[in-house]
Amino acid sequence: MTLTIDGTRNFRDTGGLPLTGGGSVRAGVLFRSDGLQSLTPAGLEALAESPIGVVVDFRTPTERAMAPDLLPDSRPFHVVELSILEGAMSSMAQDLMKAGGADPALLAQAMASLPTLGELYVGMLQHGGASFAEVARLVAASTDTAPTAVVVHCTAGKDRTGVATALLLDAAGVERSAIVADYAASAENLAGPWAEGMLAMVERLGAPLTPPLVELVTGSPASAIEHALGWLDAEHGGAAAYLQQAGGLRDDELAALGARLRG
Questions:
Q1: Which among 154, 167, 190, 254 is annotated as catalytic?
Q2: Which residue, among 63, 114, 105, 112, has the nearest Cα to 219 in the 3D structure?
């Protein structure tokens, strides 16, 4: 049965994705989501009854203070805070407010210097190796005998969460096309009220809704994660080597990650 958490928009299990050597990712081990601040009573009950026991939050302290996660109080959850600045809307909003409030020319300059999603993801990878390796360790340590499955999330669940999920899946040997498709599904999941609300907030900051900015805020085009995966291949020889070289993941930890996700 597919697990749904009411009050989220971009929650899903990575289980079932095809592996390059045959077979598929084990269900109930690695989940991904947008923020958990709006869970309904039904969502809280579903989370409490799920195999999830570890919540990895990639948001910054500012984001967490603005929208604290709601978690069931019926059992404990291990919350791991691994703040990644790249992809934080609060940081981008502050930059735009400073630029727009000071001078329209500075706002135009700030708009022109916004990164593409692919560039943003490379920045995450360049600075977040230790954090991503820690997530790999948490997934590797999960078991079927207790609620220790891992859910990773940020605010939208598309950028920081998307990069982390792609990394782990690639390291486990998931087919690249399936990794890209899983990443790209976020834009459709977030379309509608959530995306409209985010764009309205950006407009209130005085920023024009140019196509690059709209994509940065609400998009998840295949080309963005392909750019990040291409960087991993070129700079490290793939996600597995990246987790070891940039994150310090040991051989046995990498093997345990693969065994846990591949089943």
A1: 154
A2: 114
